[in-house]
């Protein structure tokens, strides 16, 4: 925290402009050593773009840039911060970076700017994590959820839970510390009711974890079925372009093919797999094994069959039609007519050749995803796996406290369980001794953020 750090904040490669950030107590002195404004100025005014040159130790011009100053604590990191906009060539950007380092700054670690923002109280830990979610968002819904968390919606909910727990804990500990004052123990039943409501609120947040996983990682949809059913054709139809090779030869697809697609705001990871059948050929056999492994990991399976022929000829694996997997039956080649053996089966008829039924299938995929995009839009709080672990720990201790109160356990032991719940809740927003956790979280950030 005592070092002044620098990083290129724009993406690597060649572009029109590049942005460098410098943060720390020596930011302005460092800038004064290397920046020569076109117009002399006595004071460095905050939030004003100034045109000038970056020069090296020999006073040689490196590049003409725009420089702006953000004085702490009114900056992203809470420290004095300099932003330099230079030309976007890789060589010139690196030269400007090297010049800044040569006069006293050091290269920032991944996520160090956001880490300093957190440590300086500019944001809580949920907001810091939302920065990375915002950068990696693949759909409008994921972007909206990340912005909601960045604005503090999740942090506010967590702080409300903390305050409720603190109020209960304060009452219990006051009763322990000052028994002679005859403090009303608030009747166990009243405290139990408050804790039950708290446990329900925590449970509601835990239920958003699956939504959060889908928004961040995508709904894993596996396209499965027998050879020549049209699985690769369906992948291409959903993607809107030719991604997989389509052939009349059975066993054309030997490996899994995965692509990300945006279906009505929900990110979906589509995986095309080899046709499932009994084979002896080594390579195709490995493809079938991989297909079966993907089925076990899938959130949703699209079971595709050639519905124009007898079901017996498809050799379809019955487990894919069983209730064990969350799946949608897709009867392909509807343009050739649906065979009588499928007349009584529930499923959606499509023709990848003519494009019919595809939009209806998209709607079913979206609706199978925790209630669809409308549900997602109304419930934008989506906790991640770290939040979920903390919430589950907190809920467990709250429920333990409820049981203890019902059993008449001594207040001292109840206080311990409440404190553990409070610690778990506090860990979500970063109000705990979690230095190792901070390092783990921010190590996944971009350099310069």
Structure report:
This protein has 449 residues and is α/β, with parallel strands linked by helices. It folds into three domains: 5-108, Probable tRNA modification gtpase trme, domain 1 (Gyrase A, domain 2); 128-208 and 383-442, Four Helix Bundle (Hemerythrin (Met), subunit A) (Up-down Bundle), CATH 1.20.120.430; 217-377, P-loop containing nucleotide triphosphate hydrolases (Rossmann fold). It has 17 helices and 13 strands. The strands form two sheets. The chain has a seven-stranded mixed beta sheet with strand order 3-4-5-6-2-1-7. A six-stranded mixed beta sheet has the order 9-10-8-11-12-13, with helices on both faces. A hairpin with a 5-residue loop joins strand 4 and strand 5 (61-70). It is flat, with a radius of gyration of 29 Å. The two termini are 15 Å apart.
Index terms:
449 residues; alpha/beta; Gyrase A, domain 2; Four Helix Bundle (Hemerythrin (Met), subunit A); Rossmann fold; 7-stranded mixed sheet; 6-stranded mixed sheet; 17 helices
Short characterization:
This protein has 449 residues and is α/β, with parallel strands linked by helices. It contains 17 helices and 13 strands.
Describe the protein's topology.
Blueprint: E1 5-8, E2 17-23, H1 27-34, E3 35-37, E4 50-55, E5 61-70, E6 81-87, H2 90-102, E7 106-107, H3 112-119, H4 125-136, H5 140-150, H6 153-177, H7 188-206, H8 209-217, E8 219-224, H9 231-239, E9 257-263, E10 266-272, H10 282-297, E11 300-306, H11 311-314, H12 318-321, E12 327-332, E13 348-349, H13 358-367, H14 372-378, H15 385-407, H16 411-429, H17 435-442
Parallel strand pairs: 1-7, 8-10, 8-11, 11-12, 12-13
Antiparallel strand pairs: 1-2, 2-6, 3-4, 4-5, 5-6, 9-10
Helix pairs in contact: 4-5, 6-7, 6-16, 7-15, 15-16
């Amino acid at each position: 925290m005592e070092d002044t750090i620098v990083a290129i904040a724009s993406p690597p490669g060649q572009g029109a402009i590049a942005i460098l950030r410098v943060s720390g107590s020596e930011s302005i002195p460092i800038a004064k050593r290397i920046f020569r404004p076109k117009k002399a100025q006595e004071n460095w005014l905050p939030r004003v773009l100034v045109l000038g040159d970056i020069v090296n130790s020999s006073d040689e011009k490196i590049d003409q840039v725009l420089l702006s100053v953000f004085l702490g604590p009114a900056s992203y990191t809470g420290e004095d911060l300099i932003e330099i906009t230079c030309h976007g060539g890789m060589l010139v950007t690196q030269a400007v970076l090297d010049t800044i380092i040569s006069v006293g700054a050091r290269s920032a670690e991944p996520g160090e700017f956001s880490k300093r923002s957190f440590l300086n109280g500019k944001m809580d830990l949920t907001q810091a994590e939302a920065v990375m979610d915002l950068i990696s968002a693949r759909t409008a819904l994921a972007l909206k959820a990340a912005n909601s968390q960045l604005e503090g919606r999740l942090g506010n909910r967590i702080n409300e839970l903390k305050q409720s727990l603190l109020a209960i804990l304060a009452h219990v500990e006051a009763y322990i510390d000052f028994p002679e004052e005859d403090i009303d123990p608030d009747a166990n039943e009243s405290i139990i009711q408050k804790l039950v409501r708290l446990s329900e609120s925590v449970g509601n947040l835990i239920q958003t974890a699956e939504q959060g996983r889908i928004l961040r990682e995508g709904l894993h949809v596996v396209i499965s079925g027998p050879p020549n059913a049209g699985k690769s054709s369906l992948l291409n139809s959903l993607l809107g372009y030719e991604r997989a090779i389509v052939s009349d030869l059975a066993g054309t697809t030997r490996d899994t093919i995965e692509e990300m697609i945006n279906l009505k705001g929900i990110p979906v990871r589509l995986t095309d797999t080899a046709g499932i059948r009994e084979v002896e050929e080594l390579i195709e056999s490995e493809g079938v094994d991989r297909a079966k492994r993907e089925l076990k990991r899938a959130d949703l399976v699209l079971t595709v069959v050639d519905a124009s022929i007898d079901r017996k000829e498809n050799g379809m694996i019955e487990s894919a039609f069983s209730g064990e997997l969350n799946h949608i039956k897709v009867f392909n080649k509807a343009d050739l007519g649906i065979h009588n053996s499928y007349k009584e089966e529930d499923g959606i008829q499509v023709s990848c050749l003519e494009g019919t039924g595809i939009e209806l299938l998209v709607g079913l995929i979206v609706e199978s995803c925790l209630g669809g995009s409308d549900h997602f839009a109304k419930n934008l709080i989506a906790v991640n796996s770290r939040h979920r672990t903390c919430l589950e720990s907190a809920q467990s201790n709250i429920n333990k406290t409820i049981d203890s109160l019902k059993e008449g356990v001594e207040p001292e032991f109840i206080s311990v369980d409440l404190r553990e719940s409070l610690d778990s809740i506090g860990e979500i927003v970063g109000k705990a001794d979690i230095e190792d956790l901070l390092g783990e979280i921010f190590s996944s950030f971009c350099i310069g953020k």
